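Subject: Interface between my chains keeps coming out wrong

I've been trying for a while to get a sensible model of this assembly. When I model each chain on its own everything looks fine, but I need the whole thing in one frame so I can look at the contacts. Pasting all components below, labels as-is. Any help appreciated, I'm running out of ideas.
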Amino acid sequence: MRNTIVFHDSSRLKAMTGKFISYLILVSWALITILPLFWMVYSSFKSNAELTKNIYSFPRDFFDNNEDKYVVIAPQLNVVPDYDPLEDKRERLIIESTTISPQRRLMLHFLIKEDLPAEIAALEPGDILEVSQLPFAMRISISWDTIWFNYISAFRRGGLVTKFLNSVIYAGVSTFLINFFGLMMAFALSKMQFRKLSYAVIGLVGLGYLISINSVIIPLFLMLTSVHLTDTHAGIILVYTAFGLPLAVMLEAQFMRGLPNSLIESAYIDGASTFRTFTSIIVTMSVPVIVTVSIISALGIWNEFLLVLVLASSETTKSLPVGVFSFSSLTSSQLGWQLAALVIATAAAILVYLLYQKRLAMGVVGGAIKG
Amino acid sequence: MFPIGFALIWIYTGHYMIIFLANLQKINENLIEAAKIDGASEAQIFFRKSVPMLSGTILVSTVLAIAGSLRGFDLIFSITTQGLQRNNAMVLPIYMYQTAFQNYTNQMRFAYGAAISNAIVLISVMLILFSNVIGKRLSFNGDE
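Reply #2:
Try treating it as a single job with all components included. I did that and got this:
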């Protein structure tokens, strides 16, 4: 290494500028990372008109809703009530917003006439009324609905509830199965006395790690079709489990190899069977790696796209990413709804990330890299 | 093209940053201290100590990024709409998907699609082997 002469005064100045420049770069990069997410969240509260006018402005229409005008409409075929008309026979006044997608029967309210003042209950179809004229309780509920309009519509029209549940089922059940089988396999490979067989099995597992779902999607699809498992929860969960196992086995076997053998020996001397040793010693000691594996596989499955796109054809088996995708191609004119759906889809992943940031980084370093 | 590239950079920078961070933390502090005592500036330490020691990691990440973009499907598929726009941003997995699942008139569509995905796997494996070869050379130089 070359020697350089260091002057004390200039070196302090240099250190200051160096720090300033590095902070500048890091802060701007952090902003680049966070700003799109921030934009997505606040834009999901904007109305369609606002989104097309200026995509960077802050939401105003939905929050400033006290003077919104509503028009009274007559019951029609395309007016879908949010209550059961057979059960609930009370008379209602149907009003539609004149500002949020007017004439499209999207922003409707069904006000019970008994609760309204006489002069409003007597309004005829075509008449205009303002939110501020209504009783306090209704005003609150309408303004609440207005603020969350995009989210409510995304949930109702996009059937996001089932898709959210599907995603939870896929991620949860597959992660459980991956850990269940992965731990057993890792225990057998790392702590039991068949060396040669372990080498062969570990080689196979490593080979399985190289193959991604994307590269074998066509044979998978044909095989699952021939056993009638396409478009079922079981089929998708099975595939996720199979493709999640190699990583789990590798990480868990690596971790278990680090556990001392004397633990198992002392358990054996105390009279524990192999299964008992596995459940009460090995599994309890490998909790950290179980958490790591669970987070990685659950997040991977949560974001997985191609498999569900190919296998799930009906709405009941679609997961959240595919649901949002098909929802956005159905409702290309309603940008706000799409943004709301995206926020819902992202929120869970971000929450998990914030809770388990350190573990996730450990998993990435431990070889859990999937581009 | 460029917006998609920018989005991909945005998505994966953090991922690779974690890998680099972990490997940087593994570097022996003594080496850097020794360099400081010898009077090296921060830039010199970075370019002459950290980067050469990370060369293996950089290489692996590069290969992973290339292999990952070979398999990248969801972002491009959902950003582009059907037709010309998607054809302009076509990558191998999308071509595979279109051949196998959207071209219903073709009798051989699954065979063609499988051939394309085999090609993707082949290219990835070749890249990995190539990176191994170069990685060995680099580490040999590092030992000198």
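Reply #3:
Confirming on my end. The CA atoms of residues 67 and 131 of chain A lie 6 Å apart.
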